[in-house]
Write a structure and sequence with these properties.
It comes from Aphanomyces stellatus. With about 300 residues, the protein is mainly α. The protein is built from 10 helices and 5 strands; from the N terminus they run E-H-H-E-H-H-H-H-H-H-H-E-E-H-E. The chain has a domain at about 55-235.
Length: about 300
């Protein structure tokens, strides 16, 4: 990874400082602004952060006694939502924890307790990893036709909500946070049903209309079943739909419902910032982020949501 025109060390110092503030319980409005942090740590404002992923395709497979395999042990990349990378990050955290535990043991004989080392790996390999792989396939195939993406993604939002209770007895809370909804049986069932319908060659041609109709009908039935679980004011989030996620002909803007919108454009730097905070996270402009002020915003104020 690299930070354009910026040495890595100041970047890591800045991230470490920010993490320390978070661990100390610093309120969001008392955090240094992004602009101030970049200047203080000389990480060059207005630069681009990017990951060099091409190495993933030439990495040798490394595995064997004493090694902890991460991901597929040969690199992984996904330019869309990256469930594979999410799975790998959890493995990295677990590997780091096991390394510290191993280094802290007194006797060499106790360095590799098989039960403790493999129980977690077996649990993760049997459940989350196959489900993340299923998510990966559904996500990619949804891009074959915009009509697939439109309805499949909506089901993902709704059916993926939950606490991942299926994994509560076997994985830590930190692990569950990387699972992107695949701990919800309803979402996995939906993915298993919809994948055979949307799977096909990426040849740039639109999908058959009959297939699209079947996918849309399946998604509608899933949404109708789950509607009572998450009553969301979708009309204030999506430009073309009502609260029941039904397309409304002629509707091209979100229904104005200020209390449901959580981002507003900062008047100081024009970046989109969180409404409930008292100041802009980037430039520090005050006085346009509290809930009290948001309720009084004029109708012409430009707002959007995190889903935009």
């Amino acid at each position: 990874m690299s930070w354009q025109k910026t040495p890595t060390l100041p970047l890591m110092d800045m991230l470490a400082y920010f993490v320390d503030l978070a661990l100390a319980g610093t309120p969001p409005d008392d955090m240094p602004t992004a602009d101030k942090l970049c200047t203080e740590f000389r990480t060059s404002p207005k630069t681009t952060y990017f990951g060099r992923k091409q190495l993933a395709f030439v990495s040798p497979i490394v595995a064997g006694p004493g090694w902890f395999a991460i991901g597929n042990s040969a690199g992984f990349t996904n330019p869309l939502i990256s469930p594979g990378i999410n799975a790998g990050l959890v493995s990295v955290l677990r590997a780091a924890t096991l390394t510290l535990e191993t280094l802290g043991r007194v006797s060499a004989e106790s360095h590799f307790p098989p039960a403790a080392r493999y129980q977690y790996v077996a649990t993760y390999s049997a459940g989350p990893l196959p489900r993340l792989a299923l998510l990966n396939k559904v996500w990619y195939n949804s891009f074959r036709d915009p009509r697939f993406f439109e309805c499949v993604l909506t089901c993902y939002w709704v059916l993926g909500l939950g606490d991942g209770s299926i994994y509560q007895q076997s994985l830590t809370q930190a692990d569950q946070s990387w699972l992107l909804g695949v701990g919800e049986p309803a979402l996995v069932d939906f993915f298993s049903e919809v994948l055979p319908l949307i799977e096909g060659p990426c040849d740039g041609k639109p999908a058959d209309n009959d297939v699209v109709t079947r996918v849309q009908a399946l998604c509608r039935s899933k949404l109708d079943t789950a509607a009572h679980l998450c009553p969301v004011p979708w009309s204030s989030i999506l430009r073309c739909y009502d609260d029941s996620l039904v397309r409304v002909p002629g509707k091209t803007n979100r229904t104005e419902r200020i209390s449901d919108i959580n981002l507003v454009q900062c008047t100081g730097c024009t970046k989109w910032r969180i409404m409930r905070l008292a100041r802009c996270y980037y430039c520090g402009t005050q006085g346009q982020g509290s809930n009290r002020l948001c309720a009084n915003l004029p109708s012409r104020t430009r707002v959007r949501t995190a889903f935009a």
